[in-house]
Amino acid sequence: MYRFFIQPQLDKVNNSLIGYELLMKKKTDQGWRPPANFSDIPSHTMASVLIATTKLLSLKIGSVSVNINRNQLMDKEVRDAIIEAQSILRPLRVVVELTEDTPNENWPNSTLIPLIQEFINYGMDFSLDDCGTGVNQLDQIQDMIPLASEIKFAIQNFGEKLRDPDIEKKVIFWRDFSEKNNLRFILEGIEDEHDDALADSLNIDLRQGYYYGKPHLLKLDGDK
Q1: Closest among 86, 178, 172 to 127, alpha carbons compared
Q2: C or N: which end of the chain has fewer Cβ atoms within 10 Å?
Q3: Model pTM score
């Protein structure tokens, strides 16, 4: 069984909640776990759970973020479900986050961009998630930057704390790149007060991580 968990995204400077990210997990004998590969989630399951989840959301916030990889972006059933989710959630805005997962095929950006543009035409925002890892390296996403409203950098992808000098340099690079391109920049993976204080010192307003709130399960009708 697959379900979405929800995690807050905050504007630390204004001390306000700006949105939630939907994180899909699978129920296993060991408890709820992220799928080893998100492409293993059947398209119909992804679509039906997303639509059922959005029907339950009545949050007084600006946005709800949904992660997809390139395989899912190429799947019409998944795209249609995201468009339906936006129609259900309006006036809340759906943010489509493209993750760093390696796709089954090496689809060129020229194939992906019209599909992303379709989301934007429906009033959604486009986000590049996990930048600097997987297939979301700068040279691989450069063509998508004009479509993006947001860039996200995840500390946890590097297995280090923000106080590691190499990680700090990467954060500064993506922070400055986002500012230069007029994009929101969200720093993910803030786990403790030290990460929080360093994010303060780097003048990063938008943040996400266990320090501000762990993901919690959104049960669907009929779930025990």
Answers
A1: 178
A2: C
A3: 0.92
